[in-house]
Amino acid sequence: MTRYIIRRLLQFIPVILISTLIVYALVFAIPGDPIRALAGDRPMSDAVREQLRQQYNLDDPFFIQYFKYIWGVFTAADFGTTFQGRPVLDIIQQRLPVTVTLALVATAIQAVFGVIAGILCTIYKDRFIDRLVQVSTVMMVALPIIAIGFLLQLVFGLNLGWFPIAGNREGLVSYLLPAFTLASVSTGIIARLLRGELVDAMQSDYVRTATAKGLKRTRVIGRHGLRNAMIPVVTFIGADLASMLGGSIVVESIFNLPGLGEQVYRSISGQEGTVVVGIVTLMVIFFVVINLLVDLLYGLLDPRIRYE
Amino acid sequence: MSNPNPEARTTPVSTAATEAGEGQKKTAEASLLADAWRSLRKNPWFIISAAILLVMLAMAIFPQLFTSEDPRACFLERNRQTPSAEHWFGTDIQGCDYYTRVIYGARNSIAVGFIVSLGVLVISLILGLVAGYFGKWVDAVISRFTDMVFAVPYILGALVFLNVIPTRGVREVAMVLIIFTWPTMTRLMRGSVISAASTEYVTAARALGAGHVTIMRRHILPNSLGPVIGYATVFIGIIIGAEATLTYLGVGLQLPAISWGLQLSDAKPYLTSFPHLLVFPLLFVSLTVFAFMTLGDAVRDALDPKSKKK
């Protein structure tokens, strides 16, 4: 197990380096002299220019710039500064809680609704509720996230007026619509996944034994069937948490939530390269680390899995 | 649906091994397709999505069939009208007939979907086949490279990349989407090649002296194609959604192009006052994406002899 973890960690070093390098290269391929942009119309002396270029490592070759940057990130959590002189880490600290709240609420929603729907399908297999859930999960999985976002905004925000449609000033309530949007696809997938697994599990020998012992049906499903059927669901939820940070860009800009995703979007259009690279690097690291944790969790949950 | 299938899956081996007639192989393939078609016809999801797609494709190719108006004939004096008998979907901010604009929007979205899906399919077939068949270091190199691109969320990558390109048409958006979305399908292809490569008929073909290219082309490719083809159809839907999203965010197609994403992004400030500007393009995007994804799922199920509906 320890050897497996070490090997996986070693494998992840090049993955993190190259994928952040891709982003770094993309952002700083933006043509134009940032120092001149900083000065605007005002004249700037050569000495000041030189000093600023030094400060931002602009005279180094590209790869050296990149390694200086990534070294700063991992040794000192230094994500650079914006051209206005504000540390990027400062922006991240201010915006991270919004995105994390959004991701956690969305995860809770998909876990609760997905699992309940999956169990209902198994209990009422081939009856009306099962069919209803199946049809609605097909819809949920197949609609683009942008459509679901606008639909919820129109129906529950505008027509019914139950939830705020933008911003996060009203606390947790204002996270509900965005979180439902972010969770919708995964809720459908979880319901289908769990139904498949649970229907299989209900036909297995140990469930038949449990039923034959005279256990109640709820106990058979809850204690015996669900335990095995939940393994792929739990790992799916974990892996999905990783990709949610990327999905937050779209949802946060639809609902004007001041989180990391909205900041990335804003910084890209405002050509604030350091902010984009800082946040995206953080997201990539999250993504890779969470995926590693999910793989390890899989082994803990399912003792049949052995790491060589 | 299970009966004729084992036959269909094993016949190419015997034909290749004996270098016998092509005719036998053709009938075998036909029976697999006929079998898939039989199960598709009974699937209500397939019927619904195929019907929607036919309409959408007709709209993309011959928009003139659906409307006689010119989408660029705009008159400011009739701007922002709500739906009426004369303008079914109302008119937009510039006073263009919104129904006509929405109809003409189909072409760009569906074009991006097809180009990207085709491009990604070609990349995945080649990389997946090579990685899954040769294994060892070839597989390690390709898989790690796939992991690296996979670790960059594709909306994010496309957002950053497209922002650097000053003029963006269908071609540019499609290229960038291909660059960031190929890993998923490549992984799928690699997986199904690995399971096809470990079968007995491949060992038999190798024992008979077949070369790498022959084994890959005649034995592995036909037997690992099913899930990938299904996913490629689903993928068209995903990409249409992604294109609309990117255009909505302001880094996709640009005016004067007509596209659903542009209509959504133009409509956003009028969400409260003129919701119809948002609703109609949204409806069309959703229907198209839904139809491709559902059709792809149905095709994947039909082509896979092992999947039986529970």
UniProtKB/TrEMBL annotation, chain A:
Entries under PROSITE patterns matching the protein: ABC_TM1
Membrane topology of this protein: Multi-pass membrane protein
Secretion signal span: none
Keywords: Cell membrane, Membrane, Transmembrane, Transmembrane helix, Transport
Pfam assignment, any one: BPD_transp_1
Cross-referenced InterPro entries: BPD_transp_1_N (IPR045621), MetI-like (IPR000515), MetI-like_sf (IPR035906)
Compartments in which it is found: Cell membrane
Domain of life: Bacteria
Record CDD domains: TM_PBP2
Record-annotated membrane-spanning stretches: 12-30, 96-120, 132-152, 172-194, 229-255, 275-301
Segments forming domain ABC transmembrane type-1: 96-298
Family: Belongs to the binding-protein-dependent transport system permease family.
The name this protein goes by in its record: ABC transporter permease
UniProtKB/TrEMBL annotation, chain B:
Domain ABC transmembrane type-1 residue range list: 110-295
Protein family membership: Belongs to the binding-protein-dependent transport system permease family.
Taxon lineage: Bacteria, Bacillati, Actinomycetota, Actinomycetes, Micrococcales
Residue intervals passing through the bilayer: 45-62, 110-134, 154-180, 228-257, 277-299
Originating organism: Nesterenkonia rhizosphaerae
A Pfam family it matches: BPD_transp_1
Matching SUPFAM superfamilies: MetI-like
Principal location class: membrane
Domain of life: Bacteria
Protein name: ABC transporter permease
Disordered: annotated span: 1-23
Topology within the bilayer: Multi-pass membrane protein
